[in-house]
Design goal:
This protein is mostly beta strands and 503 residues long. The chain folds into 4 domains: 92 residues, OB fold (Dihydrolipoamide Acetyltransferase, E2P); 91 residues, Immunoglobulins (Immunoglobulin-like); 185 residues, 3-Layer(aba) Sandwich (Collagenase (Catalytic Domain)); 57 residues, no CATH class. Helices cover 12% and strands 34% of the residues. The protein contains 6 helices and 30 strands. The strands form 7 sheets. Strands 4, 5, 17, 18, 19, 20, 21 and 22 form an 8-stranded mixed beta sheet that branches. Strands 1, 2, 3, 6, 7 and 8 form a 6-stranded antiparallel beta sheet that branches. Strands 9-11-14-13 form a 4-stranded antiparallel beta sheet, with no helix packed on it. It starts with 9 loop residues before the first helix and ends with a strand. The structure holds zinc ion. The site of zinc ion has 7 residues, from α5. Zinc ion binds next to α5.
């Protein structure tokens, strides 16, 4: 089951890569090639430097961005999986999964957490929200101190975190604007180098893409087609098959209905695909002569440009291409998934989420989680519609796109569609579970288990922590670190997964 990434193991990656190197990115460069923006990473290894070419890149006034590409800053250090050769040039073998960061952040335990409290448990990333952190020992002045958030590949480094918007810093309180982030504890590094960590995690409900070169701001949706909308062309391989086109229309209608986003479908098919820069917003399959990377189910690519008026630089998403991997046996319907199939509408929903300016989150069950597992929801009909947090995120993006006052270079606002709609996709009532829920939740030293099911306790990464046979009435949890767990019932007709918290 996939959103846009199929997680590959190190073994699977090794099979298909032409080179696996330990190295560090020492330079990055963007340039034009065949009328398209590309970039190179120079990766220094022990023996020789590798020039690795990426799709997309950024100039000051224009750039392109692909959700699945291995974009890294200089200083990124770790293992790289590459395909190609020194003669032909190198490319990432598996998109974003071609890089595994060196574990520089192994010290995840042991920071002083006792006194650090957050003003909220849930927030939006780059959603114009402020976080106030209270405690002691932050230092009277910020100096070289900073607050940092989980990025998904470790925490923001000192240079990146120095650019955050701090409105208050005292020994007992810090206020900072929340950038794009992933759910995890928030860290404070003080001017004297002490690291403090919040007692609780900050959960990120959605992320809005920021403008280029900044942790905040937006690359706006706008009036791209002249009638207040973005117009998407559907490639003929999808358009000409009624069940495929119907799945595209149904998925888009659900977004429009719930968020007002003004995305339209052209009434005739296009022969064009996902070549960013061909002048059309498209929804297409990949093709043998322009395939997606292995390990990738879909991409959303954005060509952005900027307009400068006075001291304002305004960024807009100029062309957006959504592409799905053609090499899957897709289920185009709704409801339960046929075994072994990927669900077309679900992948498309995720990619359209990107098109509507959403980034990834690491909260299970959200449509913008980059890969989809069976759990926490076994109920695939719930996935025929966007998750509640996505709805909030896209609604905010539409709000940003339809209320700005910038006017130059032909840029004007998107006109939201106010459709008084029935939910396009009926989400059935969640049936009462056959079993009572495990308790207590939050738990401490044990969890009581309703019997008749076998139970598996997993950590938030999906690693099995403990199993209990169907004869057990409780599971001992004394030695486990505090945090979020998943407890799954098995061996019964309707297995379920419960999100459990250890205090
Ligand atoms: Zn994605």
């Amino acid at each position: 089951m996939h959103a846009d990434i199929i997680p590959l193991s190190a073994g699977e990656k090794a099979v298909l890569a032409d080179a696996i190197i330990e190295g560090e990115v020492v330079a990055t460069q963007s340039f034009w090639k065949n009328n398209r923006i590309v970039s190179t990473l120079t990766i220094a290894s022990e023996t020789v430097a590798y020039q690795v070419e990426l799709m997309g890149g950024a100039f000051e006034d224009m750039g392109s961005f692909c959700t699945g590409e291995m974009y890294l800053n200089t200083g990124a250090k770790g293992t790289f999986y590459l395909s190609g050769s020194h003669a032909e040039g190198w490319k990432p073998a598996y998109g974003v999964q071609s890089y595994e960061p060196q574990q520089r952040d192994v010290l995840t335990m042991g920071f002083d957490r006792s006194t650090v409290e957050l003003s909220t448990d849930w927030a939006a990333g780059n959603g114009m929200e402020m976080l106030t952190i209270t405690g002691t020992g932050f230092g009277a002045v910020q100096g070289n101190g900073y607050v940092t958030f989980e990025t998904g590949g470790g925490y923001y480094d000192a240079d990146a975190a120095a650019n955050f918007n701090y409105t208050d810093w005292s020994n007992t309180s810090i206020t900072v604007e929340i950038p794009q982030a992933q759910s995890n504890r928030v860290r404070i590094i003080t001017n004297d180098g002490t690291t403090l960590e919040s007692a609780d995690s900050l959960h990120i409900r959605y992320n809005l893409d920021s403008e280029p070169f900044s942790p905040y701001g937006y690359t706006h949706l706008y009036n791209n087609y002249g009638d207040g909308s973005y117009l998407f062309h559907v490639n003929e391989a999808i358009f000409n098959e009624p069940e495929r086109l119907e799945a595209v229309e149904r998925t888009l209608d659900d977004f429009v209905c719930k968020t007002g986003v003004n995305f339209q479908l052209n009434e005739t098919p296009t022969p064009l695909g996902w070549d960013l820069g061909d002048g059309q917003n498209t929804i297409s399959f990949d093709t043998p002569d322009n395939p997606l990377s292995p390990g990738t189910v879909g991409y959303c690519n954005t060509l952005w440009w900027s307009c400068i008026l006075g001291d304002v630089t305004f960024y807009v998403a100029g062309e957006i291409d959504v592409v799905l991997n053609a090499n899957f046996d897709y289920d185009y319907g709704t409801g339960d998934l046929t075994d072994g199939n990927a669900k077309f509408a679900y992948v498309l929903m995720h990619e359209l989420g990107h098109a509507m300016r959403l980034g990834h989150v690491n909260e299970w069950g959200e449509s913008m989680y980059p890969s989809v597992t069976d759990w926490p929801s076994q109920n695939w009909f719930e996935r025929d519609t966007i998750s509640t947090n996505d709805r909030l995120g896209v609604s905010q993006a539409v709000d940003v796109a339809s209320t700005f006052t910038f006017s130059a270079c032909g840029i004007s606002v998107m006109e939201p569609l106010d459709i008084d709609c029935e939910p396009v996709v009926e989400v059935a009532e969640v049936e009462e579970a056959a079993l009572p829920a495990p308790y207590p939740n939050p738990f401490e030293d044990f969890i009581n288990l309703p019997n008749a099911a076998a139970w598996t306790l997993l950590d938030i990464t999906g690693k099995v922590v403990q199993r209990a046979p169907n004869t057990s009435t409780a599971i001992a949890t004394e030695g486990l670190p505090a945090g979020c767990y998943l407890l799954r019932s098995e061996g019964i007709a309707e297995p379920r997964t419960y999100r459990m918290i250890k205090d």
